Amino acid sequence: MADSTSDQVSMFLKTGIYRFESSNTVFIDQVRVLNRSYARFRVSPSAYYSRFFDSKASQPQPRDSTHSRKRKRKQKPGRPHTLNGREQVADRRHQEVRDFLAKAHEDLLGATDLLGLMLNLRSEGHSSGGCGDSILPSVGHSFIELARVWQAPLYEITLNFPQFSDSTQSGGFPVVQHSEQQRVSPIFNSLVINETRKDVEAEFLSSKYVIPRNSCFYMSDMREIQNLIPAESDNGFNLILIDPPWENSSAHQKLKYPTLPNRFFLSLPIKELAHAEGAVLALWVTNREKLRTFIEKELFPSWGVKFMATFYWLKAVDSECSSRFKSIPDNQVFISIPGDYSRKPPIGELLLDYVPGFSPARCIELFAREMIAGWTSWGNEPLHFQESRYFVRRTDT
Predict the structure, then answer these.
(1) pLDDT digits over 327-347, tens only?
(2) What's the start-to-end Cα distance of the chain, in Å?
(3) DSSP 184-252
(4) pTM of the complete model
């Protein structure tokens, strides 16, 4: 048993994924997973887990007497409420998953080796390699607003490629893999590619960004997504991850990012993007019953998608939401500490074993707000979490 635990810890330190043997549960350390995409930089734990480490959020805030009186009035018991049909369906769903989530939480509390590692999430030794200077924070441009101005077609991003060599020797000399120093590309409505095996720094206006190895992004609105459809279906994507900006009545949510009416997502060209041999599609959804009904009755039939399984995201310090997958075992639970607002954990690693077709898989994320090595990222702000303030420079490369 001790050897098994040691193997789990070793694998977690290497991959950022800890699998519980006693249940269908996985713990994900997002920073460790993402750091596998980078060599010259690493994701800053304190920047990624900003809510988790936010001391202000954990301190009780003073409340005036007026606020207290209003809260007391809100807490008065109301009249007994009879559930309508939709609420009854939602209640049954919640009852069905209660046991899965409770077992996952129990497993997490019992994994003392993992809990000990979680206490050091913010430490400098969180990931392999030394930690150098933090990159200066960027200005924080709003790509959504910049894309609307008349100058948008003129905006360019500059990729600064480092000179690097492969360890393979040829006649006693290293083989240089990439000699290009800079590349300038339009930032909107253009495929920006880093085809090298190293992450690169990019500059846009007065800000810096970090682009993972072997990755690309296409920044546009929904009208331009057709440009990503491959000319041949054999070149399509066999792993498609979608995190739509579902319509939401919450004013707070709309301040984080603009939402869209659900009917807009019916027009996504999922069939055209998918590989000829099929694709795994993972869709992030909330636990609103109205939304789930829309997905099951309208969205999936429109996309030609067959539902196979559900994953449940149990946030270590927040509430849970669910995500759908195809061709994987049902009712799995993955646990993680939530990152910045609206930032989802990188779950593509959990899906690769179920992807049909060739390897390595061709992967795309729609409505992406960050990038992963080997993936294509599309949306109106795929560089949002690639800002330099989310990274620190490594000194051991």
Answers:
(1) 466 778 888 887 776 788 888
(2) 37
(3) EEESSSSEEEE-SSS-EEEEETTEEEEE-TTEEEEE--GGGGGGGS-SSGGGSBSEEEE--------HH
(4) 0.83
Q: How many CB atoms are closer than 10 A to CB 345? A: 23
Q: Which residue has the tokens 């206006």?
A: 205
What does the block give as tokens for 205? 């206006």
Q: Closest Cα partner for 224 from 170, 194, 252, 186?
A: 186
DSSP 8-state code for residue 23: T
Helix (H, G, I), strand (E, B) or coil at 146: helix
For 91-114, write each residue's pLDDT tens digit.
677 777 788 888 888 888 888 888
CA atoms within 13 A on the CB side of 237: 23
Q: Which amino acid is at 201?
A: E
Residue 235 CB-density burial (10 A; 0-12 exposed, 13-18 middle, 19+ buried): exposed
How many secondary structure helices (H) and strands (E) does the chain include? 13, 20
Under the phi-then-psi rule, with left for phi > 0, alpha for psi from -120 to 50, and beta for the rest, what region is 379? Answer: left
SS3 content of the chain, % helix, strand, coil (to 5): 35, 25, 40
* Residue-wise pLDDT tens digits, 157-170: 999 998 765 454 44
Q: Which residue has the tokens 């043997």?
A: 21
CA dihedral angle for residue 387, residue 311, residue 101, residue 35, rounded to 10 degrees: -30
Helix (H, G, I), strand (E, B) or coil at 304: coil
Antiparallel, parallel or unpaired: β 200-204 and 191-194: unpaired
